[in-house]
Specification:
The structure holds two protein chains of two kinds. The longest helix of chain A has 28 residues. Chain A is α+β, with helices and mostly antiparallel strands. The two termini of chain A are 50 Å apart. Among the domains of chain A are: 160 residues, Aldehyde oxidase/xanthine dehydrogenase, a/b hammerhead (Aldehyde Oxidoreductase, domain 3, Alpha-Beta Complex); 138 residues, Aldehyde oxidase/xanthine dehydrogenase, molybdopterin binding domain (Aldehyde Oxidoreductase, domain 4, 2-Layer Sandwich), CATH 3.30.365.10. Chain B has a five-stranded mixed beta sheet with strand order 2-1-5-3-4, sandwiched between helices. Chain B is α+β, with helices and mostly antiparallel strands. Chain B has two domains: 74 residues, Beta-grasp domain (Ubiquitin-like (UB roll), Roll), CATH 3.10.20.30; 69 residues, [2Fe-2S]-binding domain (DNA polymerase, domain 1), CATH 1.10.150. In chain B, α2 crosses α5. The chains are: A alpha+beta, B alpha+beta. Chains A and B meet through α1 and α18 of A and α2, α3, α4 and α5 of B.
Amino acid sequence: MQPSRREDLRLIQGTGHYTADWNQPGQLYGYVLRSPEAHADIVSLNVEPARAFPGVVKVMTFADVEAAGFKSLVGGVAPNVKGVGDSAMKKPFYPVLADKKVQYVGQAVAYVIAETAAIAQDASEAIEIEYSQLPPTVTVEDSLADGAPQLHADIPGNVGFVYERGDAAAVDEQFKRAKYTSKIHLESQRLIVNPMEPRACLAVYHADEDRYTLYSSSQGIVNMRNQVSTVTGIPQAKLEIIADDVGGSFGIRSTPYPEYMVSLLAAKQLGKPIKWVGTRTDSFLSDYHGRALELNGEIAIDENGRFLAFRWDDRVDLGGYAGGNGAFIGTNNLTITCGGVYDVAALYARTRLIYTNTTPISAYRGAGRPDIAFAIERLVDQACHDHGLDPVETRRKNFVKAAQMPYKTPLGTTYDCGDFAAVMDDALAQADWAGFAGRKAASEKAGKLRGIGFATFLEASGGGNTPSDQTAARFDAKGDVTIYCAAGASGQGHETTFISLFAKELGITEDGIGYRASDSNMAVVGNGTGGSRTLLGQGSSFKLLAQKVIEKATPHAAEALGVTADAVSYAGGSFSAGGKSVGLRELAKKLASAAAAHPFDCGAEGTFGVTFPNGCHVAEVEFDPVTGVAEIASYAAVDDLGNVMQPTLVLGQVHGGVVQGAGQVFGEHAVYDRESGQFLTASFMDYTMPRAATVPLAMKWRGHAVPTKTNLLGAKGVGESGCSGSLPALMNAVMNALRPMGIDNMQMPITAAKVWQALQASEGGAAVRKAA
Amino acid sequence: MSKIEMTVNGKTVAGEAEDRTLLVNFLRDNLGLTGTHVGCDTSQCGCCTIHLNGDAIKSCTMLAIQAEGADIVTIEGMAKGEKLHPVQQAFTECHGLQCGFCTPGMIMTSAAILKQTPNPTEHDIVKGLHGNLCRCTGYVNIVKSVKRAAEIINSGA
C-alpha cells in the first residue's frame, strides 16, 4: 500500500492537529456575542448581568480593546495605490469589537470568557444591548442610490474607492472604428468560503517571558503575525503562531480575525489560556465572504472578427468595512488580466468599491481572477452569438500567439509564455467538440436541453506581497534535516511536495527529512499560501536551498576526502574526488553535535515573478425542461500549469477548483434580505454546497505544459485554475442550452427554480415542455 | 452532571458530563478523541460521523447520555494496530483527502455504506455520501476511494 502523501497517515487515523484539537491546562473559553442587526446604533450596552453569571470570568467590549490601544483591523488597498484623480481609499476604522454602531449582522460586539464554552454562551444571553435600528443597504445598487443609508459618516455616498486602469480614450477610439460591439452584465454572487474546519484559536500568554503563543489556522505566518501585531501592538518578536493541520482555507485564512486579538488580550489580563472555537454559524456570519462582484463588459470587434478593445465598469461590494483582501481583489486582481488571452489594441477598466451592511469581503479561491476570466469568456461567447461568429475560430484568430511571447498587454502586464491555440485544440479534441451535435440530438430525443460551452482563459499567479520567499535547513544532532518556509498548507500537500523536491535536488532519499511550515522560531519570511504561488515561490526557494546545502558541505567533504574544495564533485547524494567518495548524509551525521549549530545549516531566498497559468475547459450541461434541474453531462479540461511536480496532487487541486466553480454556477449564494438586512443563508440548510451527487465525477483532464522561465521550476501554479475555467465553461454551456429557448442572460446560481421560471415565461420553454 | 459509561474502540470508558453535552463533545473533550470533528451545527456536514452499535451516526446529533452503554467506534479505532482499515487505505491510495478535516467522517460513512452494500454502484456511493460535505476534493477521488475500498474488502486483503 502506497500512501499518496506524507500528511495522510495522521489525517486518516484521526491524529492530526487542527486548531480546536489543542488544549492548555487551566484554559478558559470565549464566546462572541454578535450583532443581530444589519445597521444600528448601540444606544446602551450593559454587560453586568453576564459578568455576574456563575462561571463567567470576564466580559470584554470595545472599551477593553480601546483601553488596550487596539488599532483598526487591517484592510484596503496598499497606501501607494491611488484611485481616479490621485485619490486615496476611504477606509473606516474597523474596530475589533463594535464601537457605538454595528454595520452588519454578525459583527463582533462583546466577548464573554468563562470556565466552560457552554457557560460563556449562556451568559452572553444575559448581556443587555439596546440597538436603535437604521435603514440598511445590502447591495451595491442600494448603497449607490440617492438617499441611500450612510454607513460611515466620513464616507459620503458609501463609495470607498474609484479605481481605473488602462487608457479610456484609446478604448473609445477602438469602439468608434468597430464593426461589431457587444456588452454583458454579470454578477459573480456573494459566496461563503466554508472550509470544513470552522475558525478557532487558543491564546497563551507566557508572563515570565512577556511572550504570546497563538494557536490558529493560517495560510502563512508573515501576514498573520504582522497584522495581529499592527492591531494589538504586541511586538512580532513576542508572538509565536502555531498552525499544524489546517482544515481548508481558500483565501479566508490569510489574515487574522477579531477573536484572535481579544483572546490574546484576555490571556494576558487573566493569566490563563483562552480558547475560542467558532461554530459553523460563526463561519457563515463572520468569516470574510467571497466574490460579491458585478462585472459590466463591452467588446469592440472589427469587420474581420478581430477584437479591438475591452471596456469594463465593475462594482465591488466591500461589505461593512474594508477587511482582508477585498479591496486588493476589487482593484488589482479584477483588472490585471482584463483582456484575457486576447491580443487587443486597448483596454480600460474602472472599478468602484462600495460599502454595504454585509460581512466584509476577502479572497475566495482565485480572488477576482475567476471572476474576470468568467466575464471575459461570457462576453466573448455573447459577442460570437450576437454577430454569428464561430466561437472556436474567432478565439483562435484573436489569441496572443505563442510567437508573440513575451507579450505586453495594453495595461503593461507581461505574459511570459503560453500556447493558447494548442491548449484549445487539445481540449476540444479531448472533449470531442466535433461530436456534440450527435449528443445534443440524443438528449433532445430524451426530452432534455443540452448545451456545450468552453472557455479559454488565463490568470495571474505568483505575485505575493512579501519581497522574497525564504527557506531554511537545520540539521539536528543525528544529522537529520528539517526544512522550513513561511507558507502554510491547508490540504495542498506541501509536506509531501517540498520534501520530495528537496530530496530530489540533493539526490538523496526522503528518510530523515522533516518539514515545518510557518515556524515562528525560525526567522524565515515569505509569502503565505495564495495566488497559486507556493510551488513556484517557496518551491523555487527550496531548490536553491538544496544547492546551498551542497555549497556548505563541499569544504567539509573536501577535508574528509583529503583534497581541495575545487576538486570535489557532487552527484547522487555523494561527494567524490579522485576515486573516493563520501555521502552527504554520512558527512552530516559525522559533523553533527548537540552542542553547536550544524555546519550545513543554511538559508536560501529568491524573488519569483508573476506567471500565467492558462487553460481551456469544455463543459456540457443538460437540463430537464419539466423541472429545470441541471446535470453536468460532461467536463473535460486541459491546463497549461507549466511543469507539474506531483501529478496526483495537481489533479486533486483541479477537481476541487472545478467543483467550487460548479458550486457557484449551480447553487451557492449568500443572500441578505434587502429590507431588513438580515442574513438569510447562515447554515448548510440554507446554503447549497456541492455534494457528491451533484459533481462531474467523470471529469477528464490533462496537462499541456509550456514551462515558464520566471521561476526555477518552470511551474505556473494550479490552486485556482479550476475555478477560473469552470465558471465560464459551465455558464457558456448553460447559455448554449437556454438561448434557443429565448433566454438571453441568466445570473448565477442557475437553480432549478430559476430555470423553471424562465422556461415558463419563454415560448421556447413552452414548446419543449409540451414535447417532453 | 451525569456519569456516562460506554464502550469506545473496544474499551470501557466513563466520564461525567452535563445532560446537554453532545456525544461529539464527550468524545472530544472527555475522552480526548479529537479525530472526530465538528464542522457544523445543523447535522449537515458529517465530519462527526462515528459508528454506534454498528450504524454510522452523526455524533453531534445525539446527547452523550443517550449513548450510555453503547458500543462506539471512532476513527481512532478503525486501524488494527499498524494495519489500516481498507477504507483508510483506499482514501490515501486514491488521494481521497486534501485538508483532511472531513476525512474521518467520510471514512466512517464509507465503511457503513460498504457494510450495507458490498458492491456499490456509483449511485449507491454518492447517495450514501449525501450527508457528508467536502470542500477540497470535489468528491471525485472520494468516490474513487469508496470503489477502491470495496475492491480491497472483497478481495479479502
